[in-house]
Amino acid sequence: MSGVSEPIFDAVVRIDRLPAGGRSLTVDANEAERAAIAQAMQIISVEHFSASLSVVPLRGGLRAQGHLKARVTQASVVSFEPVAETVEEEIDRVFLPAPREGQAPAPGAEIYIDLENDDFPDHIDGPEVDLSALLLETLALALDPYPRLPGESLEGLGISTGDAEEGPFAKLARLKDGNGDKD
Fold this sequence. Notes:
five-stranded mixed sheet; about 35% strand; DUF177 domain-containing protein; YceD
């Protein structure tokens, strides 16, 4: 079994074949691809998944800018009922060649890193960039981590979320305080 899995959809760009003016890349996932995306994201379903990117050469690598749209269904964290969600995300990512051993900075050399800039470039090895991983990562980060139906809460199910601590450490604390175990 190899450690590299096949991409769910084709979004590979060859840097050495990228025109100077760039090119457009459009993804509109079919039914099988949407089912594979849902499985990868561990959600109920993906009803729609599309992206349009403008890919331009940049300093030996590339810059991908565009937009991702998706309609997905996740299970509610409260009742496990299906919860629909629409995702629309802007994409702007830079991929640059990894520094070579011979190009490594000299020991003691100063290296400038802008800590205010959250957009550190991704490093690539070889002439290809698979943008499918970027699109799946964008979707994964945009999904609601705690999906719920409108008006749903743990209190509505009769589950207490009060301040009273429970569990083994709370019982130990009561024993230590001399209150004993009142269960």
